[in-house]
Amino acid sequence: MMDRRWRQIVLVVTVVLFVFWGMMGCSKKEETIKLGVAGAHSGDLASYGIPTVHAAELVVKAINEKGGINGRKVELLVEDDACKPELATNAATKLVSEGVNVVLGHICSGATKAALKIYLDSKIIVMSPSATNTDLTLSGEYPNFYRTIAYDDAQAQLQVKYATQTLGVKKAAVLHDKGDYGKGAAELAKKYFEQAGVNVALFEGVTPGAVDYSAIVQKVARAGVDLVIWGGYHPEASKIVTLMRKEGMATLFMGADGIKDETFIQMAAENSEGVYATGPKDTSTNPMYIEAKKAHQEAYGSDPGPFFFEGYSAAAALLNAIEKAGSTDYEALAKALHTEYVDTPVGKISFDKNGDATGIGFSVYKVEGGKYIQLQ
């Protein structure tokens, strides 16, 4: 009688264990790859961040429809930082707590810098489509950081070269928004202007979000410069250039990728005409660019916004690295990113020892007829 009872107990335990391990195996097999997407999804700079969310959604949808990566589906975890450093640290902390494997973002350089140490401490790779501050890669402080856009040093050199050799600028004013991105870009422009023998008659920061920038516009007018270089984003740039034109100032105005956005043109309206900006090179003849643009139009009913193609490329590069590495291990992913090439809308790219994408760069654009036209 006792033997029979023990046999029943053993049988029940065996069945329970069989079911338990079967469930565990199934759970492990179905575990998702978690791709975080962090950036400005609200506020004045949402036009920079939302296109990257769209890019990630499209890349993930295409991959999951093909069965995922090595049998695992990709899950998106989206966090808004409004391009504010204090919110970026919150977003990073939340993504880490949710077990994110890799992160696409952040969008603004200041927010990116604030969040990077949190990811580094957790051995998580981060790739930005738009954070151009030179130190993010060249300082060596953030070995976990990669990007699919060139850095500000190259952008500043192109601005100065075009301003001096094509526009004939002899005297310039350099303004900025005091942020990591804006001030850093402005300092580089100032350095290269001075090296080129250009007189930088005014170098000054303004307060982001101010209602009135008439004081700085008057300083520019008194300085009698040929060109204003702006380091920062479109909300302040649109107000400054509008005031300049209302004051009858024909002074040339040039920004960087922080204003190469349709939102700048919408805000400055007719006052945006003739404004110059540097931004990522036009790769619109690339078949993957054409395919990605079409996918965006079909999914969202509009053309992509700024940094969409860089965001699409970053998502593709991160997920390609996971596939090639066969895991989400930090060291394995880093090796794959440095050694494997991947076809993207911005070209066939890999990443150098600093984390910068190879084979990409900037061009000069000008607003003509309400649109940015590539010049060089």
Essential attributes:
alpha/beta; Rossmann fold; 13 helices; 14 strands
Please, could you describe this protein's structure?
The protein has 13 helices and 14 strands. With 376 residues, the protein is an alpha/beta fold. It folds into two domains: 194 residues, 3-Layer(aba) Sandwich (Rossmann fold); 104 residues, 3-Layer(aba) Sandwich (Rossmann fold), CATH 3.40.50. It has a seven-stranded mixed beta sheet, sandwiched between helices. A five-stranded parallel beta sheet has the order 2-1-3-4-5, sandwiched between helices. A hairpin with a 2-residue loop joins strand 11 and strand 12. The longest helix has 28 residues. It is elongated, with a radius of gyration of 24 Å. The termini are far apart.
